[in-house]
Design goal:
By secondary structure, the chain is an alpha/beta fold. It has one domain: 3-Layer(aba) Sandwich (Rossmann fold), CATH 3.40.50. It is 35% helix and 28% strand. The chain contains seven helices and ten strands. Strands 6-7-8-3-9-10 form a six-stranded mixed β-sheet, sandwiched between helices. A hairpin with a 2-residue loop joins strand 9 and strand 10. Helix 3 crosses helix 4, helix 3 packs parallel to helix 5 and helix 5 packs parallel to helix 6. The radius of gyration is 18 Å and the shape is globular.
Length: 234
Amino acid sequence: MIAVQELTKTYRLGGGDKEHGVEVPALRGVSFRIESGQVVAIMGQSGSGKSTLMNVLGCLDLPTSGQYILDGTHIAGTHGETVGEDELATIRNQKIGFVFQQFNLLPRMTIRRNVELPLTYNGGKPQKETQQRAESILKAVGLGDRMNHRPTELSGGQQQRVAIARALVNEPALILADEPTGNLDSHTGAEIINLLLGLNRERGLTLVIVTHDPAIAANAGRVIRLKDGILVDR
């Protein structure tokens, strides 16, 4: 599902060239594989590179060097070659579902319309099919009776369930969850993690979670730890 080899990411601050700018390495030669259907937690202190790694895995950013293969697609090659922006956008829409700490729901739309949005961007699907798929996913996450509510009418846990439904609606191969329980109380957070783990078991989804929470990591089949942009445990 995921293969990264000698992945690096370096940011330049304070100028556009080597003479005037300062290079800040965020990833320093990271290598690992994640098999289809695995549940993996990415852990590390602030500044360890885990958010940068998540952005690269999610095709939101490209590495400076190294190889990244996602579900058979070469996102970045060992010699710096990468796919174009249009293809990256297509990959993000079709292969990856994102769940963030912030729910990022559109407040004026019903939750069904929020869930339908990725299908709309994907294009080509009849409206009835789009509605049916959104409704099916909302039922799967326990919100079948809330489809016509707006996000402001839901609790935080319910809003995160909507975000998970939106991530699932395009039937992606990979779910990336960045601190998905960070804005929730411990009880609601545990419900969300149990929901994600249940979806992994039922649908065979590959699930990668960035987290500070050891309790969440304990539920993962594998933990990847970063320190100063270097893999210390995989």
